[in-house]
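Input record, target 12 of the design panel.
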C-alpha cells in the first residue's frame, strides 16, 4: 500500500511587460489539510498575479519520487512539450512554508495565441499521471 496525501494545486499567471513579451505561469501545490489556500491566494493576488485555476485535487505519494510537471500545448503537429520542471519530493512531502512547492514556466510570444489550450501533466509515479487543462485569461 502506498502512503499518499491529498494536495490541491492552483495555477496563477503574471504578465511580464519587457522587450520580449511573455507570461509567467506558476503552479502551486498546497497540503489540503493543513494549509490555507485562501491565505496563499490573498498573498499572490496582492503581488499582482491572476488566478487561472484553483483547488484542483492532486495526490502526492510518499514514494520518495520527485514530482515532474510538464507544460504541454496542442499544435498543428499534435501535442508538444514546452518545458518540464521538477519539484523535489522533500518540498512536497514535508509541510514547508506555504507556496514553496511550486513550478514556474515562462510562455513567450511565439506560443501565446488566442484561445490556445495548455496542459499541465503532473507525474510522480509511473502508473499515475494527472492532466490539468487551462487557458490564459
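The sequence produced for target 12 reads:
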Amino acid at each position: 500500500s502506498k502512503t499518499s496525501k491529498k494536495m490541491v494545486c492552483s495555477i496563477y499567471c503574471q504578465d511580464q511587460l519587457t522587450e520580449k513579451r511573455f507570461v509567467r505561469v506558476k503552479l502551486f501545490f498546497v497540503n489540503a489539510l493543513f494549509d490555507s489556500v485562501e491565505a496563499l491566494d490573498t498573498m499572490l493576488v496582492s503581488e499582482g498575479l491572476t488566478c487561472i485555476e484553483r483547488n484542483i485535487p492532486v495526490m502526492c505519494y510518499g514514494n520518495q519520487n520527485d514530482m515532474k510537471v510538464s507544460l504541454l500545448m496542442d499544435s498543428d503537429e499534435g501535442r508538444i512539450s514546452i518545458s518540464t520542471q521538477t519539484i523535489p519530493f522533500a518540498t512536497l512531502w514535508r509541510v514547508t512554508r506555504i507556496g514553496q512547492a511550486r513550478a514556474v514556466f515562462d510562455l513567450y510570444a511565439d506560443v501565446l495565441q488566442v484561445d490556445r489550450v495548455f496542459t499541465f501533466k503532473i507525474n510522480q509515479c509511473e502508473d499515475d499521471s494527472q492532466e490539468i487543462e487551462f487557458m490564459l485569461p
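The longest strand covers residues 4-16.
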